[in-house]
């Protein structure tokens, strides 16, 4: 498939030719979820409606009745929600419900490159997993709840102990427990509104923002120029194979990872709070959870200064582990598709997800490790609203679908992905071979 011509919107990129998109998204590189949504509304051109495939729908009257929560439809008004609807709804109920809100057909081609043909890989997979999920359910199991609540409790207890004993060792352990807690909570914020998703806000991150940047951007447009988890990290982490990367961008992260990984979340958090203070962003109650932590630590600590130092130790440790795990969990290696590489001839959304995701053999099958380190990531990307506890039971249907479409699937090791992250950033030439899980080139 010939590369699609791409060009910079604001001079940020000069030479790379995109292959997933015809041109760079508006507002690229994106620095916030509002900026990404604003650009997507302009590019998708759905006006006051919601686009699904080649039809427009007015879901205004359905927003408050959406079973997953009003936020999902609220923020996506004026955009193409095809990928979001296809991946979030496994049965046919949503398609039947949409007919009630139909406005008109639209002839303008979709901005997204992906397809969802009835007999394609992704819809075939959804049909195969439906009876399994109907039998087992798709929500959290008792074991998932026990792990999530247990991790949150361990964070609270370690934070309390570190404060009372003024122990920085315990503070670091509390930070690690916090990382495990929020990694597990990531499972919950993909699902319908629930109170456990707010465990994510015990950190310096925001579950509300991550529902956009992670669930609606990264998950749907993985490793493309429309993936904010690619663009927001630039210019320090340049994962796309740009021919004009500087020497520092290609090799500098060996050094500045140690500095930036713990710092970036602080910058994001204080930027969020600043925007609340100037009235640009509304205050959400969960934004205050880290400050409640600090307040309680100050109450029981020998001094407010000591409480602040321990608080910073906890969150610095948590930030570092979270960013390192996130960057090495599934998506970055020279063998994995990144926008600019040759794209498969059949851009079925499910197949393109396989090209942009890898599973680590070390964590597969262990629910604790799956929940705390983004495990069984391929199935999670294909079926993001299904609880992690149900994913392992779907492997037979998934592997059967892979066999039916002649797609070789295998696991990789975590060390190979950790090394692959640096190799990918050093890569400044696009892959011309077909991506990863593919038919053999003739």
TrEMBL record:
Record-linked InterPro entries: Cyt_B5-like_heme/steroid-bd, Cyt_B5-like_heme/steroid_sf, Cyt_B5_heme-BS, Cytochrome_b5-related, FA_desaturase_dom
Superkingdom in the source lineage: Eukaryota
UniProt-listed GO biological process terms: lipid metabolic process
Signal sequence, start to end: none
PROSITE patterns the record matches: CYTOCHROME_B5_1 (PS00191), CYTOCHROME_B5_2 (PS50255)
Alphabetical keyword list: Heme, Iron, Metal-binding
Pfam families: Cyt-b5, FA_desaturase
Cited SMART domains: Cyt-b5
Ranges for domain Cytochrome b5 heme-binding: 52-107
Positions of transmembrane segments: none
GO molecular function, one term: metal ion binding
Entry keyword Iron: yes
Heme is among the record's keywords: yes
The family this protein is said to belong to: Belongs to the cytochrome b5 family.
Protein name stated in the entry: Fads2b
Organism: Gecarcoidea lalandii
């Amino acid at each position: 498939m010939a590369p699609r011509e791409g060009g910079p919107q604001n001079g940020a990129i000069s030479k790379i030719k995109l292959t997933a998109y015809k041109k760079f998204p508006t507002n690229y590189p994106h620095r916030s979820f509002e900026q990404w949504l604003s650009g997507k509304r302009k590019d998708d051109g759905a006006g006051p409606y919601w686009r699904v495939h080649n039809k427009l729908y007015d879901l205004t009257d359905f927003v408050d009745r959406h079973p997953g929560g009003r936020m999902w439809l609220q923020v996506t008004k004026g955009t193409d929600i095809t990928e979001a609807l296809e991946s979030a709804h496994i049965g046919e109920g949503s398609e039947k419900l949409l007919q009630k809100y139909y406005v008109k057909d639209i002839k303008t081609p979709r901005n997204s490159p992906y397809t969802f043909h009835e007999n394609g890989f992704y819809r075939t997979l959804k049909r195969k997993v439906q009876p399994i999920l109907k039998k087992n359910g798709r929500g959290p199991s008792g074991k998932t709840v026990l792990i999530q609540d247990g991790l949150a409790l361990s964070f609270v207890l370690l934070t309390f102990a570190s404060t009372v004993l003024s122990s920085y060792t315990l503070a670091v352990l509390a930070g690690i427990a916090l990382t495990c807690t929020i990694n597990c909570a990531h499972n919950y914020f993909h699902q319908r509104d629930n109170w456990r998703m707010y465990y994510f806000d015990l950190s310096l991150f925001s579950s509300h923002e991550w529902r956009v940047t992670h669930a609606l951007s990264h998950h749907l447009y993985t490793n493309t120029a429309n993936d904010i988890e690619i663009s927001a990290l630039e210019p320090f982490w340049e994962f796309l194979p740009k021919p004009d990367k500087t020497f520092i961008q290609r090799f500098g992260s060996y050094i500045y990872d140690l500095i930036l990984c713990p710092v970036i979340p602080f910058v994001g958090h204080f930027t969020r709070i600043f925007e609340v203070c100037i009235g640009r962003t509304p205050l959400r109650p969960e934004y205050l959870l880290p400050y409640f932590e600090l307040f309680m630590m100050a109450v029981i600590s020998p001094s407010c200064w000591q409480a602040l130092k321990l608080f910073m130790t906890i969150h610095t440790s948590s930030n570092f582990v979270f960013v390192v795990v996130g960057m090495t969990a599934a998506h970055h290696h020279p063998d994995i598709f990144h926008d600019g590489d040759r794209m498969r001839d059949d851009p079925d959304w499910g197949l393109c997800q396989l090209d942009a995701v890898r599973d680590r053999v070390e964590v597969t099958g262990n629910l604790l490790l799956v929940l705390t380190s983004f495990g069984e990531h391929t199935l999670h990307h294909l079926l993001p609203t299904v609880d992690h506890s149900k994913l392992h039971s779907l492997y037979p249907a998934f592997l059967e679908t892979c066999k039916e479409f002649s797609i070789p699937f295998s696991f990789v090791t975590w060390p190979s992905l950790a090394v692959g992250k640096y190799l990918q950033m050093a890569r400044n030439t696009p892959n011309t071979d077909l991506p990863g899980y593919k038919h053999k080139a003739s």
